[in-house]
Specification:
alpha+beta; six-stranded antiparallel sheet; 10 helices; about 60% helix
């Protein structure tokens, strides 16, 4: 006869655990269902983030400009050294040919001096170290050998200099590539944020930017501020002729500019050479710390790391190339953290 067993009942502890787990799962589901969706950033929040990215891009741009300037300088220096090496090698060959001609003349007149034979088949450095050998040479031969020795030393130094500069150039090119990527990355990130806006928000931001750019084409009250020197005013007027020209990172005119590209280009039109990047322009003249002492045509340096520069235009206005997406225009000097002016 088969036995009938009652099914084993779950323990009270197990029931409690299962009940608690089920309750927790229901609570989590309810919480997830009731959670508010993540809020999309507002137009003003996006603008603030984009402005910050543009500022960071400009910081990287000035470093990019510095690396680019260094690269161009190194390339010129390397070219000069290589030209010197080539000319030096020609001079050395002529000196050796001259000594060979003397040796040939000696041979035709009755035999070649053993000491000259030794030189022609060995390094003159070792040769001249032997005082006994010098005694066997004529005065003209000794002078020729010393010239050859000096020229060899000079060429060795120039070749070593060229090698070091080539290493520095390779390092500078690497830095240039990194800074270019950094700038492009910041600009790409800013564009993604702008693309996240809806059509109405994009239109509103575009109108804000258009209003700011229009101020450069409309009459701006520059007051009757003191004018700078003739050359400073000539540079300022050259910059004024570029109002409405777009900002492009790394550009130095004449169809687009970044901030220091505009100021260096403008002074060049006035016949004055100033450094390419804002940090160097900050040291190119007399510093003016009080805004009340600024004259039209003075450079104005902004931000703690000195990464932005423009012209003082008078009446609290600056003329500058602001940032990506903007144009050369007038703007209040108080829109950026003023550091000091520079009178070239």
């Amino acid at each position: 006869m088969a036995s009938h067993r009652r099914p084993k009942q779950p323990s009270r502890a197990r029931v409690t655990v299962l009940t608690t787990a089920a309750a927790a799962a229901v609570a989590i589901s309810a919480q997830a269902a009731n959670a508010a969706p993540s809020e999309k950033p507002s137009k003003d929040e996006v603008k603030a983030k984009v402005d910050k990215l543009y500022e960071e891009a400009e910081q990287a741009t000035e470093k990019y400009n510095g690396a680019k300037e260094k690269q161009e300088k190194l390339q010129k220096e390397i070219s000069t050294v290589q030209d010197n090496v080539a000319r030096g090698q020609e001079e050395l060959n002529e000196l050796r040919d001259g000594l060979g001609s003397m040796a040939s003349a000696q041979y035709r007149s009755g035999g070649i001096d053993p000491s000259v034979q030794l030189f022609l088949s060995a390094d003159p450095e070792d040769y001249l170290d032997k005082a006994s050998t010098l005694d066997q040479l004529s005065g003209q031969q000794v002078e020729s050998l010393k010239k050859i020795q000096d020229k060899q030393r000079e060429l060795a130094q120039e070749r070593a200099e060229a090698t070091e500069k080539l290493k520095d150039l390779a390092s500078t090119r690497e830095e240039l590539g990194k800074k270019k990527e950094e700038v492009q990355g910041k600009l790409s990130e800013a564009q993604k944020l702008l693309n996240s806006l809806d059509a109405a928000e994009k239109a509103a931001l575009a109108e804000e930017q258009a209003r700011a750019n229009r101020s450069s084409a409309e009459r701006v009250d520059l007051g009757n501020s003191a004018k700078g020197s003739g050359r400073a005013m000539a540079a300022f007027q050259a910059a004024q002729s570029k109002i409405g020209t777009p900002y492009v990172y790394g550009a130095s005119g004449p169809s687009s500019f970044d901030c220091s590209g505009l100021t260096s280009w403008a002074f060049a039109q006035a016949g004055v050479g100033i450094p390419r990047i804002s940090q160097d322009q900050a040291n190119a003249g007399t510093r003016i710390y009080s805004q009340s002492d600024l004259k039209v045509g003075d450079l104005v340096i902004f931000y703690g790391d000195l990464h932005h520069v423009g012209f003082y235009a008078g009446n609290g206005q600056v003329l500058h190339a602001p940032r990506t997406g903007a144009y050369v225009r007038y703007e209040s000097i108080n829109n950026m953290p003023y550091q000091f002016g520079v009178r070239i």
